[in-house]
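Co-fold these.
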Amino acid sequence: MKKLRFLVAYLHAGSMDLAVGVFLITLLTWLFDIPFAWWHPLLGATLTILPDFDIFLPLIRHVLFGTLTGADNHHKTWLHFPVVVLPVVGVVGYVLGGFEWACIAVVGVFAHYVHDAITTGKGGGSWLVRLQRTNWKYVHEEETPTHWVEHNWLKWSPLSIIETALGVTALVATGIIIALR
Ligand SMILES: [Zn+2]
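Predicted complex below.
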């Protein structure tokens, strides 16, 4: 039961990113006059959660075996260096779909970094490169993502309330755009 509660808490913690991703791709494809396709929401959600792929394996390990340390802090991997990832997704988007998809890819991933910078980084985190290894919230070994989830997502907190409200707002806005297009 504890495993399930943690799993739900982790999903809840990622829910705003997913909802914002769905909203952004719906908005941008509308602005670019790209016809709606069923995979757009999936791609939008994937783009906005993309940098956090570095935490999925440690999280699975945590849910199954209960092990997670400060060393598993995903914000320390290259997926959380915007200067590396944003050009890469921009080029991939451009090669696969041209200018519009390059914009969509960059904006989607950029939104994730903005979210991280506001909620987890002291002063915005590693926007350029890993110049300041200590510039992150989970710098101490005892302050793991597990503690963060326990304090913020296993129970209602100001963070979870605000992000849930923003996520719901993003989905409502998505619905309005779909109704308009
Ligand atoms: Zn992140």
